[in-house]
Structure formats: structure tokens, C-alpha cells
Write a structure and sequence with these properties.
The chain is mostly helical. It contains six helices and no strands. It has helices spanning 8-14, 20-51, 60-94, 98-103, 107-130, 142-178. The structure holds fe (ii) ion. Fe (ii) ion is lined by residues 77, 81, 113, 117, 162, 165.
């Protein structure tokens, strides 16, 4: 598990009173930050770490493969959230029956996305195992230290992001469906 302070509770607390629309805006901003900054930065750090002439830990190549698999899966996951699930949640908020017309129940797209969250958590855990809990060898060079630090930060951010989706946004949408007289937010 991450050794840094877990931001999960903070993110959920920050958004506990926020509207579904503003939570979704925050989630989409995080998606964009991962796509435009964090994923490319970490990919670059793998290049840098593997170009070092000093001894490299054996985990670097499999860790890099696992990271690129995670990125590829996250592209599809984020697209499905932004183009299918988030609009459905906003529709359900604006008009109680519109989501039911498209999906039968908001539970169906949420169930699909939650399964992807389970896979995402498994991928992150597998990466942590490959990297031996991100414990650096004593003679680790600066590029490797930076890479591991960024990977751990991404792992913590992804856990916090998923918790915000599942515990706040999706939970509210499901509660609103079972009590349609109440608004989502
Ligand atoms: Fe997600």
C-alpha cells in the first residue's frame, strides 16, 4: 500500500457536499492531467532510467510493460466514463427517466465501470509487487528515485480518484435511482 499520506479521505471530504456536475468536472480534469502530464512524464522517466549506464534493477523492464498496459486500459476506461457513464449520471439528475431509457438502469453502466476499477486496482497492486513496494536499492540513481516517486504518486492519485467516483458520485446516482423523488445532488 502507498506509504505517503492517503489522499482518499481528503478528496471524498472535499466533494461530499459538491454537486454531481462539479465532481465530474474535477474527475475529467484529473483524466486530462494524467493524459497530458503524468503518463508522458512517467514514460519519459522510464526512458531516462533505462538509459543510465549504472546497474539497473531487474524490475524495470516488466514494470515498464505493466505501466504501459495500465495506460492503454485507462484510455478506454476514461473514455467510457466521459462519454457514457458521466453523461448518464447527469441525465439521470436532470430527468429521472432518461437514464432508464438508455440502460434499463444506471446500475448497468456503473457495474461495468466498477469492474474496470477492480482491474485497475489489480494492475496497480501488480506494479507495486514487481517494484518490491517501490523500495529503492541503496545505490539507486536519481532518475530511478524520481521514477518510483512519480509512480507512487500516480498510484495514490488513482486510488483517491476511484474512491471519489465509487463512494460519492456512483453511490449518489444509485441512491437517487432507488428514491427517484430525491435529486442526485
Ligand atoms: Fe474510473
Amino acid at each position: 500500500m502507498p506509504t505517503t499520506e492517503d489522499p482518499t479521505a481528503t478528496a471524498a471530504q472535499d466533494c461530499s457536499q459538491a454537486s454531481a456536475g462539479s465532481i465530474i468536472q474535477r474527475l475529467v480534469r484529473e483524466h486530462r492531467r494524467w493524459q497530458s502530464k503524468d503518463f508522458p512524464l512517467i514514460a519519459h522517466l522510464f526512458d531516462e532510467a533505462q538509459s543510465e549506464e549504472s546497474a539497473q534493477p531487474a524490475c524495470l523492464a516488466p514494470l515498464r510493460n505493466a505501466f504501459h498496459r495500465l495506460c492503454a486500459e485507462m484510455e478506454g476506461h476514461m473514455s467510457r466514463e466521459e462519454h457514457v457513464l458521466f453523461p448518464a449520471i447527469l441525465d439521470a439528475q436532470a430527468e429521472a427517466e432518461s437514464a432508464a431509457k438508455d440502460f434499463g438502469s444506471i446500475r448497468n453502466p456503473i457495474g461495468m465501470i466498477e469492474q474496470e476499477h477492480d482491474w485497475e486496482a489489480e494492475r496497480l497492486e501488480a506494479m507495486r509487487k514487481i517494484a518490491r513496494d517501490y523500495q529503492l536499492p541503496e545505490n539507486a540513481h536519481e532518475k530511478l528515485r524520481l521514477l518510483f516517486r512519480e509512480l507512487e504518486a500516480l498510484e495514490a492519485a488513482m486510488h483517491a480518484h476511484t474512491r471519489l467516483e465509487s463512494s460519492i458520485l456512483f453511490a449518489r446516482a444509485l441512491a437517487a435511482e432507488t428514491a427517484p423523488s430525491k435529486p442526485v445532488a
